[in-house]
Amino acid sequence: MKFDVGIMNNQPVPAIVRQVKLAESLGFDTAWITDSHLVCRELWVTLTACVLGTSRIRVGPGVTVPHTRHFSVTASAIATLHDLAGDRLVLGIGTGGSSAETMGLSVQRAARTATLETMVQGIRSLVTKGTVRFDSGVEGRIAWLDEPRPVPIYVAGSGPKMLRAAGRLGDGVIMYAGTAPEILRAGLGHVAEGARERGRKLADLDVVLWTPTAVGRDRVVARDHVRGRVASAMRHPLPVELSPEDQAAVRRLRDAYDSYEHATAASRHRELVPDRFVDLIALAGTPEEVLGQVRRVMEVPAVSRIIILPQVPGTGFSEREATLKLFAEEVIARVG
To answer: Which of 36, 44, 100, 305 could crosslink 105 through cysteines, CB 3.0-4.6 Å?
Structure first.
């Protein structure tokens, strides 16, 4: 099992760079930077600074979306960053949540598999010196590209439809569907179905979990810290049927969710998250509890890496650096 870190870049860029450098020193494999332009700092500026401040850790968007940039812009951006990062790049692509909602778009409306497919195939072609046909009918290419610069593309999904698309389209899959083994196995079934549509097996894909995480000495504070991220996850469909009681709780969360508090530790909507959802979705609690939760994920061998997504800091909550250190020292170091 490999461990990555996801960072919501709502803090100043130098702070994010320090956190990525810390993650590198602690042995994390990849740093995924979020792309929510009205809630967080600008993605590609932040990524460039992170690349320049590190030497080993892989970096990339986690995840960039089709409705805020044309895919040709994203292709040129990742190909340009290759000048600085070389083979240390990954590219996470998804339908997004807060980036859509802060623009007045619903998550459901943004979640179109055809749009995602156009984005993935277009970027893959452009960064390898290919051409694409735009909606205008014009054929385009990256004129300055001197040689192919392929980058691993990870497609994100939560519900059955998007997980099948991710299995069909991606070099890797980012599952945003919880940590409970029964949910993971159900989700992997959809990923495998998508992979078969392209003549591949599940084992051909790098399957990654996008996991809200809070670890601390105080169990109650840690679980409260992660609730905002759990609320965000529960806006998306899951690969399993929830009970009527849980479906009602999800509706309340969706109605109350404030996307402008997407990167706020003390978000008001977090108060609507029941403990059961924390147990289903997150790695949260004391180091001993989180170690047990990681071992539970490891019962599902198709999952090859976990992206821990620490909630942003805030009054009364731990700093992201403290979470990274505690997770590395008392979870990763003992998980083997």
So the answer is: 100
Between the CA of residue 220 and those of 78, 144, 215, 316, 324, what are the distances in Å?
40, 54, 10, 12, 18
Model pTM score? 0.96
DSSP letter assigned to residue 64: B
Res 98: pLDDT: 77
Which domains are assigned to the chain? 2-335 (3.20.20.30)
Question: Would you say 175 and 184 are in contact if contact means Cβ atoms under 8 Å apart?
Answer: yes
pLDDT at 108: 64
**Backbone φ/ψ region at 27: left (φ over 0), alpha (ψ -120 to 50), beta:** left
Rounded Cα gap, residues 239 and 318, in angstroms:
32
Q: Tell me the average pLDDT across 7-15.
A: 96
Mean pLDDT calculated for residue range 1-11: 96
Dist CA 141 CA 294 (whole Å): 43
